[in-house]
Amino acid sequence: YFLFPQAVKNGKVTYPPGVKEISDKISKEEMVRRLKMVVKTFMDMDQDSEEEKELYLNLALHLASDFFLKHPDKDVRLLVACCLADIFRIYAPEAPYTSPDKLKDIFMFITRQLKGLEDTKSAQFNRYFYLLENIAWVKSYNICFELEDSNEIFTQLYRTLFQVINNGHNQKVHMHMVDLMSSIICEGDTVSQELLDTVLVNLVPAHKNLNKQAYDLAKALLKRTAQAIEPYITNFFNQVLMLGKTSVSDLSEHVFDLILELYSIDSHLLLSVLPQLEFKLKSNDNDERLQVVKLLAKMFGAKDSELAAQNKPLWQCYLGRFNDIHVPIRLECVKFASHCLMNHPDLAKDLTEFLRVRSHDPEEAIRHDVIVSIVTAAKKDLSLVNDALLNFVKERTLDKRWRVRKEAMMGLASIYRKYSLQGEGGREASKQISWIKDKLLHIYYQNSIDDRLLVERVFAQYMVPHNLETAERMKCLYYLYATLDTNAVKALNEMWKCQNLLRHNVKDLLDLKPYISVFELPTNLPDPGKAQDFVKKLAQVLDEDERVRDQLETLVSPSCSCKQAEVCVRDITKKLGSPKQPSNPFLEMVKFLLERIAPVHIDTESISALIKQVNKSIDGTADDEEEGVPTEEAIRAGLELLKVLSFTHPVSFHSAETFESLLGCLKMDDEKVAEAALQIFKNTGSKLEESFPHIKSVLLPVLQAKAKRGLPRQAKYAIHCINAMFTNRDTHFAQIFEPLHKGLDPANLEQLITPLTTLGHLAQLAPEQFAAPLKSLVANFIVKDLLMNDRIPGKKTTKLWVPDEEVSPETLAKIQGIKLMVRWLLGVKNNQSKSGNSTLRMLTAILHSDGDLTEQGRMGKPDMSRLRLAAACALLKLAQEPCYHEIITLEQYQLCALVINDECYQVRQCFSQKLHRGLCRLRLPLEYMAVFALCAKDPVKERRAHARQCLVKNVNIRREYLKQHAAINKLFSLLPEYVVPYTIHLLAHDPDYVKLQDIEQLKEIKEALWFVLEIIMAKNDNNSHAFIRKMVENIKQTKDAQAPSDPKTNEKLYTVCDVAMHIIMSKSTTYSLESPKDPVLPSCFFTKPDKVCFCTAKHFPAVSFTFFFVDPKSANVLGAVNKSLSSAGKQLQSKASRMETASNDDPSSNPGSPQRSKTSGGIASGGSEPSSRAECLSGLFFVDNTFDVVNIGIVSFSMAHINPPLKATCLSSQTKRRTLGKEQTEGQSVPLKHSLDV
């Protein structure tokens, strides 16, 4: 009005030329026509047209009247809105309207017209676009800043634009909208919370999913106005997060979603908000902390996020939540790790330690998700995870929970297949994860059947995929086997043997032997309890369904091919499955069984392909170097693989091509290759003579040559090949025996070893054929000429052991002579000629003389160690044959047992392995298990651990055997609890146990007893603790059968019983219950019990047994065999005896040689006395003489009787005590501790 007062004064409306008056008296169509002409006029005008601006001012005022603003026709309203937009443009910067209410009405009117933008296909869309473009370019809405209702106008405008935006709009519409809205924010004085909510609501996930275009519009707006709008965003979050004023906005409940979206749009929007999150991470509210952790996980883990680098305090605070007390929070942190590792490898170092801790989290789900996070990242790119992270997965393969173990194993398997088999990461990646194959196979040693089944599945699907072509599959297996470590190879071999045994069990089921299968099959399936019912149902199905029976017979047939196996498995599964019953436990068990017995890797075609692969390596045409395997190693490994498969799949070798290739290997110079080929022939050549006569004619001369002039092991297998493959073996044996027997020359020791080996095996396989010459050979040549003569002086050395290649030929010949005698006896299997007694006397004489039978002192220490070991192992061999076990005296048994405490570490090691093997096969009698009790004295921790493992395994084998077999008549020889009387008797005759009142010796007895009892008493099945207690009580009613009239011997026996009784009483709470069965004591060890005269006297010193049995929470040796000795008390050792890691090859060291005093009867004599009675009593407690009540009191004795300084003479581990004319050496004198602590 102030600009054009004359026009206002006249009040007359001037229309453009050709346009008549526009009023309510004309039709709508005419009004639209006239308005279009007005629009055209205003469109053509610009701000410099002063005359026109004055001329049309009244028209501008007229168009803003309510008549037009509230007109019912949308076309009229659109044209008016366009005119008004141009009027604001023309008259800018001052509008011709001064009334605040009118301005509000006009802008609300224009905002309503903008809704027309929604329909992009409308005929009027271009006019709507013109309207938007005009007001955006002119920034017309900025006029409203001065209005009181500006917030209402702006809010309505924003809502309208966010509502109408859609995917039909082009970039220009989007740009003009952003221009229009951003000008309001950037040029205004404030942004109200209502207006801010109008923008932010489009970022909430629910709205975002409904209208993606509105989200993009809000995102573009916030980017454009980041600096201007940031203070208002900060204020909003301050109100909600810090002050808790959730009522300030309806978006308060979406605050964390908004922070995430705003950070992804522009991190500068949250510069002042992020520190508040650090405060929230330390909130006492679990749910609030969880929400913040979820938010930050997304923010830190986002692909292009730099938040960790930009805000290190927040990052460190977030990492602290990995140790949060709330389980869901720790779980969320662990899940975040995979995204972080994949998107931000530079943060892996920060995450490693926290993931290590969480991999040991008490919650199973968290340990599981640690594995998932690491494996997910590793599968994307191996370089994203370091070795430490992979080791966490490796550790979890031994987790106590099956779900975690399974995830770890499957994760490692998938990593191995991707980077090793498929070679996606190149040679470096393959090398980095080369340990995975070994680790996965090591798990086969676990006791859980679930673990073993999973290893088999992993092997078949990931390590050597069964769906590969035969040649490729065998190549994969060939190089895998060549690169496995020793333990992994053993595990793989054991896996094939178990599968082969299971096939035989199924065959028994098919052959109508369910009484065998119902015990054997369930132990090879998950949940053996339910598996027994499954086997019974399977037997019923096989009786009723001939088709399933035929398919299963084909599957377990030795001639079944891999392709046939797949068809059979598919058909059986389909036949037994039912669409109506998706969850079928019986079908699942059938699948487990079929998975284990189906020969998906090995058949005749596979063996042929494997032989070709070996031949390629021999010819030098294989890819050995590319696979990272030296050719010689590849050949040896290939033949070792064939050797193992010849045990489990012998029929698959029956082809001329295979046998011809093996014959070529037999003629090679490599001794290992030839040896493996011989073993394969032995295992697979049973039908070679009749099926392949042309190969037999070539093979026989080779075998005869190997038996006469080959290496000892080759000679051994050559003899066994002839025995297994040829019908007229007697003729072939005679052709070998005669020249070798006649050609024996003690002067040529190097040429004796192979002939003695061959003759020994001939003696075992055909003892009757060569009975007379063998007896003469043993008596005259072996004993008189070989064993009783030392022709070559041994090397003077302090070493107790040397490598095999450094052993003298004479010693090797003597060892073979000992083996020949034993093999001959094992072949004869009777003692009618008393040859067994003579041989046993010879072997015990070798042990008595420490290996130097002639006692001339000409033998070196390493040679003596070898002969002691050979004699002890020979005794074990004879003890496995019942006819010779009966004639082994107690003294001989005890002398043999002492070898497990030999001064030479290697002798102890080898002897314990032989002992363990014989016990595991249930060949050695039960009393030999008691020998392991002496290992409690071994100063080498690893030896003690190994002995415990052996004991645990033997106990479990016997218990499992008794469960599966109704062996009531063998109970005495199998029940592990019966090892207790043998242990007591053996320890009572321990040469180190000399003086009854010696506390240190009693402590060693206690340690040895607990070494066995801890394992035997680990379970209390059928009240076995009371049974053991009853056995010990019964022993005290007997006398020692070895010396029944010797009071000292019986007193020692009763003392050991008392020690055993106190162990039982202190470790068991059920020992006093009624014994389920009256124990039977071995008559060879104990006299008949005297029920009338029961020995109730205590035979231990008058000191408290609390000294020996400080109630320990001893570690469960069944689960941690590598832990130290039981906490019931440790041996006192001198400094020298603690040198457990020294090598026997070092002349200045002798690792743990618990040397024994030996007499001709195997019973100890002599011993050192304590320097004073005070030494026995120091630190001990008196005990009441009653059987059950132990009273504790401080020792009281006269100090005047103690001669200072108190000292105890202790033998160091290097000390040797001999009683057979050898010098006795006393150990160091070390002060005894005077501890009186309870």
Secondary structure layout plus pairing:
Elements: H1 5-10, H2 28-44, H3 50-55, H4 57-63, H5 66-69, H6 74-90, H7 100-113, H8 125-138, H9 150-164, H10 171-187, H11 193-200, H12 205-210, H13 212-224, H14 226-242, H15 255-265, H16 274-281, H17 286-301, H18 307-310, H19 312-319, H20 327-343, H21 348-358, H22 364-380, H23 387-396, H24 402-421, H25 426-432, H26 435-442, H27 449-463, H28 470-483, H29 486-510, H30 514-520, H31 528-544, H32 546-556, H33 562-576, H34 585-597, H35 604-619, H36 631-648, H37 656-666, H38 671-684, H39 688-691, H40 693-709, H41 712-725, H42 729-742, H43 753-765, H44 771-787, H45 809-828, H46 835-848, H47 861-879, H48 882-885, H49 890-897, H50 905-920, H51 941-964, H52 971-974, H53 979-988, H54 999-1016, H55 1024-1035, H56 1047-1067, H57 1173-1177, E1 1207-1209, E2 1229-1231
Antiparallel strand pairs: 1-2
Helix pairs in contact: 2-6, 6-7, 6-8, 7-9, 8-10, 9-11, 10-13, 15-17, 16-19, 17-20, 20-21, 20-22, 22-23, 22-24, 23-24, 24-25, 24-27, 26-29, 28-35, 28-36, 29-30, 29-32, 29-36, 30-31, 31-32, 32-33, 35-36, 35-37, 36-38, 37-38, 37-40, 38-41, 40-41, 41-43, 42-43, 43-45, 44-45, 45-46, 45-47, 46-47, ...
